[in-house]
């Protein structure tokens, strides 16, 4: 396979030794951390991304020469933390003196990946310009070590390799001191970005009066690292480790279509420090520019709760009683549809897509929301969207301040309308936050929930009709808390 290039021809001769190049072996072990970066999961745009975080451990079979000499480790990802890269020789055959990272980016990215390889450089008419080992690829041309010395080629049409294979990604040039010549096993570990994962959930709501759903859990693995990963042993980490270096790879549909990965067995779940880990049961293929999916948990049916929520105000509490008449008089008209369920196991953060069948039995998308890291037994709630047939209106019906008695009385009327053909239950959530001491003095519907900053009512709204909720609260405070103005 040739690489095409256009430049001006110039040849220079010098003396430089050949640098053996070592390509990646299949079967790397990778620990992959969660990332929500849009750049990783986008269906268009630059195929390269400097988001996500993974720690890779792989074996390299190297050919050593006795004494000090140079090696090139190729087929590395595009984005690496050079300070955290480590090459070791378990048998003690050699030690690393220095290292230099050659980034596989820019116009010479593919050629940089060939550093240390045997290549043939061809001209416009297919004539051979140079054959030997590629020492460097830069804007000034190709530096090639030949049998006659070193050649600098500035104008060429194509580059071929003996195997017809162009490794992707970056390369690492190492100076090593070996105690003997011969083959040796080396272990290379490094953190990289351009690859990440997040949970992906799908819920199919079931027919019937009770809320239940068929729940599927997957891990979406995005690879934009600049290299392919073959037969990779993968462990996924759920949680949020701290990353101190802003310049290092960070955790935050591709050129290739999303690639589902079949797996009969499920990941083995465990703990790592304060985080959860999911070790996949079999090696996976992660082509560059792809999204792969693997199951996290077996599909199951879960109970759930659908809520139509009409909410006004917030949880903010003033430093002293708020006596301003215009405070907290805002009113919206939208009623929000939400879905809540209890986590059957530890659920890593990700996005939940919710479907329901239409009148013809065809599943239709009705909303999507983010689930944060959710421990087993905790509730997860997402917003599906705005209910089309439901509306709300909030009006204040009375307001009175008694400074001498250190009390404030306030009342509201909430009108709910339902244009649909079936009755609906609407949860009205109010936030009495003029002051922390308050009580409900009257309500046309009994509160279903009451906390220090929240008041909730469940109101039945008939089909093609409306319902009205009236309620009043009284705030009180002490002499020491009395506002001065």
Helix tally equals 2
User: Describe the biggest sheet?
Assistant: 9 strands, mixed
Number of strands: 34
Are there runs of 5+ residues with pLDDT below 50, and where? 1-18, 247-263
How would you describe the shape? elongated
Mean of residue pLDDT values: 85
Instruction: Tell me the radius of gyration.
Output: 32 Å
Tell me the span between the first and last alpha carbons. Answer: 82 Å
Give me the side-by-side strand order of the main sheet: 31-34-29-28-25-24-30-33-32
Structural class: mainly beta
Q: Please estimate the helix content.
A: under 10%
Signal peptide: 1-24
Organism: Dyella acidisoli
Domain DUF4139: 187-477
Pfam family, one: DUF4139
Please tell me about this protein's structure:
The chain is mainly β and 485 residues long. Among the domains are: 3-28 and 52-192, no CATH class; 305-339 and 384-481, Immunoglobulin-like, CATH 2.60.40. Helices cover 2% and strands 54% of the residues. It has 2 helices and 34 strands. The protein has helices spanning 38-41, 109-112, and strands at residues 3-4, 13-14, 21-22, 29-33, 53-64, 67-76, 86-88, 94-102, 118-122, 128-138, 141-146, 149-153, 158-161, 170-178, 182-192, 195-205, 212-223, 229-238, 259-260, 268-272, 275-279, 284-286, 290-303, 305-311, 334-342, 350-357, 363-371, 379-402, 407-418, 424-430, 438-443, 449-450, 455-461, 465-476. The strands form 5 sheets. A 9-stranded mixed beta sheet has the order 31-34-29-28-25-24-30-33-32, with no helix packed on it. Strands 4, 5, 7, 15, 18, 20, 21 and 22 form an 8-stranded mixed beta sheet that branches. It has a 7-stranded antiparallel beta sheet with strand order 1-13-9-10-11-12-2. A hairpin with a 4-residue loop joins strand 32 and strand 33 (455-461). The chain is elongated.
